[in-house]
Amino acid sequence: MTPTQIAALIAAGAFVLLVVLMAIPLVKLGRTLDEATIAIRKAHENSEPLFTGANSTINHVNTQLERVDGITANAKTVSGNVSALSSLFTATLGGPLVKTAAFSYGVSKALRARRSRKQEPAGRHVRRKGKGGRK
User: Fold this and answer.
1) What ranges do the domains of the chain cover?
2) What is the rounded distance in angstroms from the CA atom of residue 56 to the CA atom of residue 41?
3) Which of 22, 20, 21, 1 is nearest to 9 (CA)?
4) pTM tops 0.70
5) What is the DSSP string of 82-119?
6) Over the stretch 31-49, which tens digit does the pLDDT of each residue have?
7) What is the pLDDT of residues 65-85, one digit of tens each?
8) Cα separation of 114 and 122, whole Å?
């Protein structure tokens, strides 16, 4: 054997060793990809019942929200009616009530003033100090 043939034989052996060493990670990578494919397939098969349950839950929530919308609309109507009733009460009874209260206050003040004049001595007028004749 010539030195060239020996060198070629060593190079071929090194190449075989390199191929064997590279084949091990490639085989492991292939197994990992197979497992990933199986996991994805199982996840796809099990996701359909999950989506069906979520869809029915969303439909139920939408039904409840429609009911809440109806309740909210009714509450808005009621609050508008209460506001209108309050305004009507204020317009019809508020003015006369204020006038009646002012009149009764005036009458009671006049009666008090009259009583205080009756209690003063007859011939004697007392001049009061201060602004407007008040103490």
Assistant:
1) 3-91
2) 24
3) 1
4) no
5) HHHHHHHHIIIIIHHHHHHHHHHHHHHHHHHHHHHHHH
6) 999 999 999 998 888 888 8
7) 999 999 999 999 999 999 998
8) 13
